[in-house]
Amino acid sequence: MIHRFGVLPSTRNCSVESGKEGAVKTIIGLIVIVGAGLAIAVSGSGPIIAAAEQAVVAEKGQPDETQLPVYTPPKKLTPRARVGGTLRGTEGKDPEIVALVPDHVGLTVKQTPVLNWFLSKPTTYPIVFTLNAVQQVLPIYEKPLPSPKQEGVQSIDLKTLGITLEPNIQYRWYISARRNSSSHSEDIVAGGVIERCEINECLITIGGPITTCDQQSVIINAKNGLWYDAMACICSLIDAKSGDPSLRRQRAELLRQVGLHGVADWDMRSIRSALQ
């Protein structure tokens, strides 16, 4: 706020008392400022970290928290489609695996989409990817994957594996860490269900396919119920710019909306670690 002060006609009219009064007001103002500074210091680093996050976002000109994605589930839901999904902690020797999927059939418009999952810690256990068509007994694909070298969000590119999804067919997929090669009952397993929506059919809902990958397309795809396309895009953006806090906030928001609070918390801790 800009204050405009009129020019006094003469300084001779200023009394000694008014001068003292001004000095007192100045001292009181200084006390208030110092007190506010102490209050911030005592309250901890939380507000400081939040301010730093906002400064980074403002400097980079990227969406703030008012532009977080909102996921709209499909109208026809098949509930209880997710396997696993809860992080219990990472104190034990075994890793935890979470498929980054909703607990219903998730949609994609892509023939060869990318699937994402979370690993709580590196492991020496063999990691196996399995893909089944829901109406078939034998798996379409079941082979080991390269073991991730670090914790965090991982990706499976079906195009790289030579897998194409047919439209209007539900596929169940799993990630398994095999603790005992002779007994799959001891596997650590997570997974979900994906269905490819034929573009001509999806046009009624989404108004056209989203072929680009940026923060705006994440918001649009999520709003139109294309979970796998929104999640794959935001994960790809984070891989390219891991230090951008606005990207991790977008992913964390999507994860919370489908109940994956543990992985969302991990994303938010990653932001704080980067700022400290």
Nutshell version of this structure?
With 276 residues, the protein is an alpha+beta fold.
- Please give the count of helices: 7
CATH class equals: Mainly Beta
Please provide the count of β strands.
8
Mean pLDDT: 78
Number of domains: 1
Structural write-up:
The protein is of the alpha+beta class and 276 residues long. The protein has one domain: Immunoglobulins (Immunoglobulin-like), CATH 2.60.40. The chain is built from 7 helices and 8 strands; from the N terminus they run ααββββββββααααα. The strands form 2 sheets. Strands 2-8-7-4-5 form a 5-stranded mixed beta sheet, covered by helices on one side. The protein has a 3-stranded antiparallel beta sheet with strand order 1-3-6, covered by helices on one side. A hairpin with a 7-residue loop joins β4 and β5. The N terminus is likely disordered.
